[in-house]
Specification:
Blueprint (H helix, E strand, L loop, with lengths): L31 H6 L10 H6 L26 H6 L41 H8 L31 E2 L3 H11 L20 E2 L22 H10 L13 H25 L4 H4 L1 H4 L21 H15 L4 H17 L13 H21 L26 H28 L4 H21 L17 H28 L15 H7 L10 H8 L25 H21 L32 H19 L13 H24 L5 H16 L10
Antiparallel strand pairs: 1-2
Helix pairs in contact: 4-20, 5-6, 6-7, 6-10, 7-10, 10-11, 10-12, 11-12, 12-13, 13-14, 13-15, 14-15, 15-18, 15-19, 18-19, 18-20, 19-20, 19-21, 20-21
Organism: Amorphotheca resinae ATCC 22711
InterPro entries: Zn2-C6_fun-type_DNA-bd_sf (IPR036864), Zn2Cys6_DnaBD (IPR001138)
Protein name: Zn(2)-C6 fungal-type domain-containing protein
């Protein structure tokens, strides 16, 4: 690998530090003088900096928990994943009256993440025919376009004998890696310049047992600003291309430690940059003082220095959710970013036109999106008004597709509104309040979402061969449209899920707004809320002639009572939307890491595998999709519509089950890819695997002949 000179992100030559930074862990408490000067403190009673400058060395107790302590590694076994998720609740689905004769078999052993994928057989031109033959009580007109392509992966061959941790030798290389891995999914910095998109990772080394990993070629370099540290925390989670066992316990633990060290340092740096020395020494004077302006080079030449802490908080927000699984901290970091952005007036720039205009627009709107996403993940109302008239800043511009941002923002508004609908529906059911408002709201949202999804079905989400990221940001536009399509269809599942499936839980743990089986058992002791008629509908269908040409009369109860749509219609909507989500996840672009010495050549060690996509704050959409497909699998199997028909051909039910399995496979592919970097998302992956295997192992009897 070519050695890269230690330069700043702005392209200027950085002076070599007088001493090596971060060779040992940071001290528990830095003195006030070092904190004010933003320099490294050695923690001695009279630190070397104060002694040299003739200053009085004063310490106050830290409020941030002290120095990082490396945790003792826990022994693990091959059964870790299954023990974390325990056993799929065998009885949760069978509470529907017509299904309680079906029993779940013991789940199979979990599939190893990253395993090779089979050729998928998805020819869904006849999906409507199949669904209608099984479930419909009347003519439906929903088209479920869904197909896949062959998609396999294998580990690269390498003789490297140890776990490898990814490090970088300069801020310039960190910025280039940001553009390679993060920017396509969260374009919070300006568009890249030519030659700014590459990946030059090194294998990090430790110079002390508890120190972080450093570059070999630039031993004195260490990221030191909030933004470079926050980006480094995310990059540290990506397996190094020379790591022969990136999913091994050793590699995972080392990446976790490195990322957490960077994340903690990033947050501390944000705090330090807003610190007033007088707050500790002369609090009475602090209120009349202003924070000194930052005196350092910007991480990015076209991004204002004061925006860097906001961007760092957005990075840390995603880190807390996807890596550490802490939604509360995710929302806290996003809230801090929002407050900082509002204080800088980034929300009210109107039609600002200047050198930093585009940078300010991107920082504001990515903050807005992250805050909204936090409310979706926590199933709570957003802390801001979606259409606040004070938000006048224009949207960012992506020259390859000028409408991509508008469509993406609209999809974000829709899924927030659908989440609010789920909240309101839950309150209505629990309080037995008037249902007319929720009825009308569902009609309004369906009227809004359906044409948007029809429009999204016409989008081109990928290119062949895949495009490289450049200043036109076509790759970014494709990713934004893919994410928008995922969110639109997830919003529609949220809207129809209760009417289609009565929100019967299928997962043992709570994810997003999907109840867990344990939570459901506790609530079952309370008075029952009104149920949809899906149970009645599917039960009546079990005695009907399901031949394609038969005429079927609708059952006496055709809707959910409190909601305007029939359970069959809603189930079919969920089927189509879940397939759309699966296909859209498959179409999202992958990072294309290429070394700066040869931008057209991928790493030989990684050319045969998919490197992890980053910034999966919309991963709950995968859970919505899988929930719908698992429920449809369950209903189809529990009704006994399996096996061959009289002439020996595959039955419509068997064909639908095959398509649902392939759709679930695509969702699992996406989550396996994300979980290569993000550990918390491995829990989602495992829950879907266990639930899917339990449904597949159901012991059911075919419907008897009449």
């Amino acid at each position: 690998m070519a050695r890269v000179s230690n330069t700043s992100a702005s392209g200027t030559k950085a002076a070599k530090p007088a001493r090596k930074k971060f060779a040992v862990p940071p001290v528990k408490v830095a003195c006030l003088e070092c904190r004010a000067a933003r320099t490294r403190c050695d923690g001695k009673p009279d630190c070397s900096n104060c002694t040299t400058k003739g200053k009085v060395c004063i310490y106050t107790q830290s409020k941030r928990g002290g120095s990082r302590i490396r945790k003792r590694r826990q022994s693990s076994s091959d059964g870790d994943a299954s023990s974390n998720n325990k056993e799929f609740n065998h009885c949760s689905l069978s509470i529907l009256p017509e299904f309680n004769q079906a029993s779940f078999a013991e789940p199979l052993g979990l599939v190893a993440p990253g395993g090779g994928l089979r050729q998928l057989d998805l020819s869904l031109e006849d999906t409507d025919f199949i669904f209608d033959a099984i479930f419909s009580t009347r003519d439906e007109s929903l088209d479920s376009g869904y197909d896949t392509s062959d998609h396999t992966g294998s580990c690269s061959e390498s003789d490297h004998p140890r776990s490898c941790i990814r490090v970088y030798s300069s801020d310039q290389d960190i910025l280039a890696a940001y553009y390679t891995y993060i920017h396509p999914y969260l374009p919070v910095l300006p568009a890249p310049e030519p030659g700014q998109v590459y990946d030059n990772p090194e294998v990090g080394i430790r110079r002390a047992p508890d120190s972080i990993f450093n570059s070999v070629s630039a031993a004195d370099f260490e990221p030191s600003t909030p933004l470079s540290l926050a980006i480094s925390a995310l990059l540290a989670l990506i397996p190094h291309p020379e790591d022969t066992d990136p999913s091994g316990t050793e590699s995972v633990h080392l990446r976790r430690e490195q990322a957490q060290a960077f994340a903690q340092s990033a947050y501390e740096s944000i705090e330090i940059e807003s610190e007033l020395v007088d707050s500790n020494t002369q609090p009475g004077e602090a209120l009349s003082r202003e924070i000194d302006p930052l005196d350092r080079n910007p991480f990015h030449p076209r991004n204002p220095l004061q925006n860097e802490s906001i961007i760092a908080l957005l990075m840390l927000s995603t880190y807390e959710y996807a890596q550490r699984g802490n939604i509360a901290k995710m929302r806290n970091r996003a809230g801090q970013a929002l407050n900082a952005a509002l204080n800088l007036g980034l929300h009210s720039k109107a039609d600002e036109d200047g050198y930093y205009a585009e940078a300010n627009r991107r920082v504001w709107w990515m903050t807005y999106i992250t805050v909204c996403q936090g409310s979706i993940l926590s199933n709570s109302p957003p802390p801001i008004l979606l259409y606040d008239p004070r938000f006048t800043t224009l949207g960012p511009t992506f020259s390859a597709d000028t409408e991509a941002w508008t469509d993406f923002l609209q999809a974000q508004h829709v899924i927030v509104s659908a989440t609010q609908f789920v909240i309101d529906l839950d309150v209505t059911l629990k309080t037995n309040s008037n249902t007319s408002a929720i009825w009308q709201r569902m009609l309004e949202l369906e009227g809004l979402i359906e044409p948007l999804i029809a429009k999204a079905d016409t989008w081109t989400l990928e290119s062949f061969p895949p495009v490289m990221l450049d200043s036109s940001e076509l790759k970014v536009s494709q990713a934004l449209r893919g994410i928008a399509r995922i969110k639109l269809n997830s919003a529609r599942i949220k809207l129809h899920r209760y009417c289609a499936f009565s929100d019967v839980p299928v997962f043992t743990k709570k994810h997003c707004d999907l109840k867990s089986a344990t939570e459901s058992r506790v609530q079952s002791e309370a008075p029952m809320a009104p149920n949809c008629s899906c149970s009645t509908t599917f039960h009546q269908l079990s005695n009907m002639d399901l031949s394609p040409n038969s005429s079927m009369s609708p059952p006496s109860t055709t809707n959910c009572g409190i909601l305007p749509f029939s359970s069959t219609f809603s189930a079919k909507v969920c089927l189509k939307s879940s397939f759309n989500i699966a296909r859209s996840f498959q179409s999202l672009p992958y990072p294309q890491p290429a070394p700066s010495s040869d931008p057209m050549h991928f790493f030989s060690a990684m050319k045969d595998i998919k490197v992890p996509r980053m910034m999966p704050v919309f991963a709950c959409c995968a859970m919505q999709s899988s929930y719908a497909m698992i429920m449809l699998c369950y209903k189809t199997r529990a009704m006994g519509f399996v096996g061959a028909v009289d002439d020996g051909r595959e039955s419509p039910a068997s064909k639908l089950l095959s398509q649902l399995q392939d759709g679930l496979g695509l969702i699992l592919d996406a989550l396996r890819n994300y979980s290569l970097a993000y550990e918390a998302l491995g829990g989602m992956r495992d829950q879907i695997e266990v639930a899917t295997q339990s449904v597949n192992n159901m012991q059911v009897s075919p419907i008897p002949d009449h």
